[in-house]
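Comment thread on ticket #2218

A.B. wrote:
> Attaching the input chain for the structure job we discussed in standup.
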Amino acid sequence: MAKRLVFITNQLPYPPQSGGVIKSWRLLQHLCQTFRVTLVTPLKGEDAKHLAALQAKLPLEAVHAVPVDRPRTGMNFLRSLVCAPTLNVYRNSDKALARAAEEAIANTDLVLVDHLEVFPYVPPRTRVPVVLHQHNAEYVMWERSKAVASNLAEQIVLTLEAARVKRYEAKACKQADLVFAAPNDQDELARIGVPKQRFRTTFHLGDDSGLQAPDLQFDEASDNLLYVGTLSWPANADGLRWFLAEVWPLLKADHPALTLDIIGRGASPELEHAVAKASGAVLHGFVDDLEPFYRKSKVFIAPLRFGSGTKVKVITALYRGLPCATTSIGTEGLDLVPGVEVMLAEDAPATAAGISRLVTDKDHWTAMRDSSRKKAKKDLAWNSMLEDHVGALSQLLDPSPA
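C.D. wrote:
> Ran it. Output below, let me know if you need it in another format.
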């Protein structure tokens, strides 16, 4: 009989339309082919609406899901100082869900923790192997966010939280029996004392269904830019606000008819206001079918000023062959050739110039479309990586040589 596995994640991994949710979904799908899986997850935002659809698609043995939606506020930060190792741990904690997780873990063979902030759902005396799936080196994101903090108070809070995350991240990685992490994240985690022999390499890939779609055509697209991502994620929200304030006016001066579609859940009132002020920009929220937006657009934007780990939104654009404009933060761990497979720029004038060329230069656009899809097909495939992950988990359960 198949072994039991408890999969603990920080939000419902469905629908798989953004960043880490795509990775969690593909990993969960694959694990269900080998293990009897119990899912443990807090529910965020509109997750409860999608719970039945997820259960209909996967042969899960059990699901424990509880609404837990604490916002990222100053008051919750202060509360977290008293009762949690980090702010995000506090924001994802729930006593009822913790009891359900403990009962499930008591009757399982293996635990996979998908995201650092839900690691506390694993009881301290757990006797079965525990695997931590690191979507990012979290402490790096907090440290980098200090560089774009708007005031002294924010810098102080971010400095304090970065130190807390660093301590907890090192502790959790050392407690886990195995840590899945991308190569660049392994380097960052090794710097804070995580033994290198604990790592198993993973990559955070995107929705590769785009590889089967026909090539996009320059002449069929409008002068339109596209952004897709989780808008509640601080790095995404910060990057978009910067883009709208600094880059968008430069682009509109040269291309008055240019438009921008922004797709994703969780936009704050501040971001909604920034979009409303930007002529030609439209905030769509969650969208079921992205294909019409890919077909109408000439450039995918991923403006990131901080963050860590591999950016799934960039990979998804590569799969679809929509030329992507991003920063060095957006291409970490991907080994992309600037100007060939991706448009790379760090400041507003260079970003605007690169996007402007893609909007107007058909030959350059077509060459980047073809190069990005070729790169994605060659180096960013799911199947072999997921098989390797299952092999690593099976080795934990039966470490004897074959």
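A.B. wrote:
> Thanks. Noting for the ticket: The longest helix spans residues 152-175.
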